[in-house]
Specification:
This protein is mostly helical. Helices cover about 80% and strands about 0% of the residues. The protein is built from three helices and no strands. It is flat and about 35 Å long. The N and C termini lie far apart (about 35 Å).
């Protein structure tokens, strides 16, 4: 149960991202892609950071 705090924080991040992406979706396809992006936003964030650092 030591990792429950980080899971809760990640879950809140996923819910917040889902609300954001679905709220800005104009089509069903954009909403479906928004759900995908909401689940994998940490990977996108890390990719962008590494891209900026050129690693």
């Amino acid at each position: 149960m030591k990792h429950a705090d980080s899971g809760a924080i990640y879950g809140m991040g996923v819910l917040g991202a889902m609300v954001y992406y679905l709220g800005h979706a104009a089509t069903f396809a954009a909403g479906a892609f928004g759900i995908f992006k909401a689940l994998f936003w940490p990977a996108f964030l890390l990719y962008k950071i590494l891209e900026l650092l050129k690693m």
